[in-house]
Every structure is written in structure tokens, then in C-alpha cells.
Amino acid sequence: MSHSQSKSVTKAWGEVKQSAVKNRNFQKNGKNSSDYQQALSGLNATEYQASQTGIYIENLSFTYPNSDSAILKNINLTIHPNEMIVLVGENGAGKTTLAKLLCRLYDPSQGAIIWNGQDLRSLPLEDLRSRIDVVMQDYARFPTTVRENVAFGNLPKIQDDEAIREAIAEAGLARVIEKLDHGLETLLGKQLEGGIDLSGGQWQRLAMARALLRLSPAELLILDEPTANLDPKTEHEIYNILRSLAKGRIAVVVSHRLALAKLADRVVVLEHGQIIEVGTHDELIALGGQYHLMFTRQASSYN
Ligand SMILES: Nc1ncnc2c1ncn2[C@@H]1O[C@H](COP(=O)(O)OP(=O)(O)OP(=O)(O)O)[C@@H](O)[C@H]1O
Ligand SMILES: [Mg+2]
Questions:
Q1: Ligand 2 centre distance from Cα of residue 96 (Å)
Q2: Where are the domains positioned within the chain?
Q3: 38-54 pLDDT per residue, tens
């Protein structure tokens, strides 16, 4: 991918996040997100349950504009309500591309993505994106205070120190932030006068804190390489955070760290734009195919 392409993708991801934040002028008030969605949808409980059929990806193929080779080929997959899927596969397999199609940054060249019975193309874009939260590989590093970096996930909570500190603690950053001279008011980013920089892993945890504070009614959570900058020895802490973020919604997590795949309800293995294996970690290990190979290779490189 060229530099300018990668920039425009990053920008597009940013736009998804912004529109999600813009649309989130509602609060949870202690209800879980499905209660909230039920209230929003105006359906009674039975009707609401019946409408929650998950995501159905049907015969999907995709070619980027200005390109002539298909990046995703004939993808068929059903993601059940509340399911956590981990997408694995080698570099360039098409994982991020599939995630982008789920947010409707692009439309399929063939086939369709159906969410709770509706084609994504039939849903108003702003509405669709308000139902999705994204934490991505190129997660945002805002050159501003710790407080704002976290509260950009949920602006009505910007003065709620307790909520901000709780999100920071859950993301495993409490000790780092406590040590800073100006606490939540510390400026982050070397480009700012007096600003301090964080390590890659600390920035990533801050992005998690932002997502946690959002406590959003989002129904679909997409995480692209949430552990990319984390030390493999400490990343298991993040897994618990991921689990709590994913609770009560569909989560699609892209990861090269196969230890994370063990947490998933199901693992989907992509190779050259095609799904080659789908199943639980145990099923795929027993299958003795590509996932088994990747997992054994990775396990031995960590020892
Ligand atoms: N905007 C784009 N235009 C054209 N081709 C693209 C674009 N973005 C990605 N690609 C190509 O699509 C293919 C799949 O890329 P994608 O980013 O989906 O892979 P991935 O599985 O996420 O890889 P990685 O593990 O490295 O993140 C690659 O060959 C990539 O070069
Ligand atoms: Mg990727």
C-alpha cells in the first residue's frame, strides 16, 4: 500500500469514529446496550429479539477502486448476536479490508452484508456508523491532555474524573498517569510545548480507555490489531479488557496474536482473500490445518 493510500484509509477510519462520536448524544443510564437499542427501535422484547439475527456476509467479493485484482473472494459468513470473532491470516490476506466493508467504508463489488435482516446499503450511513465502534491499528493519538484523549470517546463525560480514572485504570494505565506531574491535565504529544510522549503500548492502552469510557450502545465493535504495540508478556491483561468491551455486542477483532484467538467464540482464517477455516480454537487445532500451523509456529517463537 502506498503512503498516500494508507493516509486516506487512516482518515476514513477517523471519519467513522467521528461520526460515531457525533451521533452519540445519548447516555446509557445504567441500561445495557441491548435494552437501549430495544427502546430506540420501538419494538417490544420479543420483536426485538427476533430482529437481532446478527450479520450475514453473503457471497461477498471486493476489488478496490482503481485496482483490478479481487482482494476478497466469495466470502460467506454468519456472525451471531453477541459473538466475538477473531479474524486471523497473513499480511495482506484481506482482514482490514473486510473490517472496512463492515463499516461501509466501501461497498461490496459482489454479494452483500446483511445486518439484522437489512442490507448495509439500505441503512442511512450516519445511523449505521453510530451503531459501530472502531479501535484500529492506526489508533488516534490526539496532541492534547490525557483527559481529552480519553473523553473523546464520550464528550459528556469530559468533567467526570471518576469515570475517566476508572477507564484509565481498567486499561492498565493508572500507575503511568498517577506519576505524571499534571495528572489528567498532562499534555501528550512531543509536538506540544511541555508535552510528553507515551510508548506505543501506552498510547494503545489510552485508545482502549477511550473505548471503555464510551460505554456505548454500539452493537458492533471492530478492533483492528488491538495488541499490535503491546509486549507479548503483558498483553494478556488487555484480553480481559477486550472481553468486557465485547460483552453484549458483536465484536470482530483482527489480530496476529493467536493467543487472542483462544478467547474468541469463533476464529475465521483468511488466506488470499478467502475464508479457509472457521471454528473455535479447539476445533481448528484439532483440524490440523493452517490455523494449527500458524498457532504452533507462533507458540514456539514465544518460548
Ligand atoms: N486502499 C487500497 N487500495 C488498493 N489496494 C489496497 C488498499 N488497501 C489495501 N489494499 C490491498 O489489499 C490487500 C489486503 O490488505 P488488507 O489491509 O486488508 O490486509 P490485512 O489482512 O489487514 O493485512 P495485515 O495483516 O498486514 O494488516 C493487500 O494486498 C493491500 O495491498
Ligand atoms: Mg490489517
A1: 4
A2: 143-216
A3: 665 666 767 666 678 89
